[in-house]
Design brief:
330 residues; Farnesyl Diphosphate Synthase; two-stranded antiparallel sheet; 2 strands
Length: 330
């Protein structure tokens, strides 16, 4: 790790405050349409909050490499639009009722309108990105969209079935870490970095994204509904096997324990096995700890990827991000 001390949360917020406010304004302006439903749903999603990690990563990558022009505001809004579009589609696919403690958009407006608004946000993101007149930017965004769609389809094919650790890591890369990686790469591209520097930034984003999703999956099992803003153990209820579950299925659990987990995965509910029983099984097999250790490993790899980045307040902020990701409670 660099000799520069890791930043604090307040320092990072203060450092990016004006840029994130500008991105929020840009997103709001870009998401206005003559069709009322598009503007209403986009505003509802934007006002729902969120950590804005992805645009923050783009900003930090660009600024750490000496870039500070308007392109980072424009592309920051682009990555947040892409992320928002994925949330809309995910809620439809998962038949979700809540998102961040509020009714999900599909529940409030219906699947038909929401799937079209998600499509519109994707296309609007590409329209805004075109203003950069940079083929590498478009190449990254096209590859990103393909990876995320493939990831969603692969996950649908595996619902209700046990999967291997390798399949799990591939899924979470496509569904989550790929957007973290591309956010970092876009910042490097804006700064005119060569491919080696872009790759290092991409490695940071990929590892951070993998850590983020593993922790997210652990919190789904261990946090409370009040903290999560959605029902606990939603992944299992939806037939998704996450890392802690995979570890118990593959390592040392008894036949009865494996059967309990497989029952929930197949049933898609907790009518026959309760969430507390599943959590007890996972803890008995040290599987939650195993998943968190994996997240810590990816977090450390993210920080190591910054070795060649010049020391600055922006690098300090990037060093803080992995620590935040693995320590968060929601």
């Amino acid at each position: 790790m660099s000799t520069v001390a890791t930043a604090t949360a307040k320092e990072v917020f203060d450092l990016l405050h004006d840029d994130l406010v500008a991105i929020e304004r840009e997103f709001g302006a870009d998401a206005v349409s003559s069709v009322a439903a598009i503007t209403e749903i986009s505003d509802y999603l934007r006002e729902g909050g969120g950590k804005r990690i992805r645009p923050s990563l783009l900003l930090l990558a660009a600024r750490s490499l000496g870039y500070s022009d308007r392109g980072m505001i424009r592309l920051g809004a682009v990555v947040e639009m892409v992320h928002t579009a994925t949330l809309v589609h995910d809620d439809i696919i998962d038949a979700a009722d809540t998102r961040r403690g509020r009714p999900s958009t599909n529940r409030a407006w219906g699947n038909g309108k929401c799937v079209l608004v998600g499509d519109w946000l994707y296309m609007q993101a590409f329209r805004v990105a075109l203003e950069e007149r940079n083929f590498r930017v478009l190449e990254l965004l096209i590859g990103l969209t393909q990876q995320m769609v493939e990831g969603e389809l692969l996950q649908m094919e595996r619902l209700g079935k046990p999967i291997s650790e390798g399949e799990y890591h591939d899924l979470i890369y496509r569904k989550t870490a790929c957007l973290f990686e591309v956010s970092m790469r876009l910042g490097a591209v804006l700064a005119g970095a060569d491919r080696a520097v872009e790759d290092a930034m991409g490695d940071y984003g990929r590892n951070l994204g993998l850590a983020f999703q593993i922790v997210d999956d652990v919190l789904d099992l261990t946090a409370t509904e009040e903290v999560l803003g959605k029902p606990v153990a939603s992944d299992l209820r939806e037939g998704k096997a996450t890392l802690a579950v995979i570890h118990t299925l593959e390592n040392g659990s008894t036949p009865a324990e494996r059967l309990s987990i497989q029952t929930v995965l197949r049933d898609g509910n907790f009518d026959r096995v309760s969430p507390s029983e599943i959590l007890h099984i996972l803890n008995r097999n040290q599987s939650v700890n195993y998943a968190m250790q994996s997240a810590f490993g990816y977090s450390a790899a993210a920080q190591a990827a910054l070795a060649g980045v010049p020391d600055s307040e922006y690098k300090r902020a990037l060093q803080w991000m992995p620590e935040f990701v693995v320590a968060r409670e929601k």
